[in-house]
Amino acid sequence: MGVLNKVQALLGLWMERIGLLGLPMGVGALIGFYVADQEMRLVPEFLSIILVALCFCLLAIVLGRLLAKKLYRETQQQSKVRKRVVACIVAILLLASFKLVLFWTQQPSRLTDLTPAEFNDTFAYNSELFKELDKGLENAVQYLYAKSEIFYSHAIIGT
């Protein structure tokens, strides 16, 4: 009878964990479908929201440990911050840095401020410029091939 109770308790524990894991997954799927229906772009709009939410959750973990007085572990020599708390703080800093990078990439540039006509003119000008540069590089390579004996005689003299 004791083994049956242990198996039942273990099965109950795992069923509870599956349920606790399934709830956020279901809510996440619902939020994902809602966001897709709103035609929100994954990057950078929705990713920014997720980063802020993750930072909030990690900060809540740290504050919860602080309020529960589980932030430090007492040793004989000193108080040490728990590894989980340090990992949460590092994750918060990484997520905040990534959010700043997303914010930076969303800033308008000189090209995004151009009208379509100005953009097309700029594109045509740059295309012609690159064609000239390409032609100049091609001429330089042809000149070097024509004067290849310079390189070979130099290599023979050096040896």
Please state the overall shape, judged from the principal axes of the Cα atoms: elongated
Query: Count of DSSP helices?
Result: 5
How large is the radius of gyration?
31 Å
Report the helical percentage.
over 70%
What about the largest sheet? 2 strands, antiparallel
How many structurally independent domains?
Answer: 3
State the total count of DSSP E strands.
Answer: 2
What would you say this structure looks like, in words?
There is one protein chain. The chain has a two-stranded antiparallel ribbon with strand order 1-2. By secondary structure, the protein is mainly alpha-helical. It has helices at residues 2-37, 42-67, 83-105, 116-146, 148-158, and strands spanning 72-74, 79-81. The protein is built from 5 helices and 2 strands. The N and C termini lie far apart (90 Å). It folds into 3 domains: 1-40; 42-107, no CATH class; 108-159.
Task: Write a short abstract of this structure.
This protein has 159 residues and is mainly α. It is built from 5 helices and 2 strands, in the order ααββααα.
Search tags:
2 strands; 5 helices; single chain; two-stranded antiparallel sheet; 159 residues; mainly alpha
Secondary-structure blueprint of this entry?
Elements: H1 2-37, H2 42-67, E1 72-74, E2 79-81, H3 83-105, H4 116-146, H5 148-158
Antiparallel strand pairs: 1-2
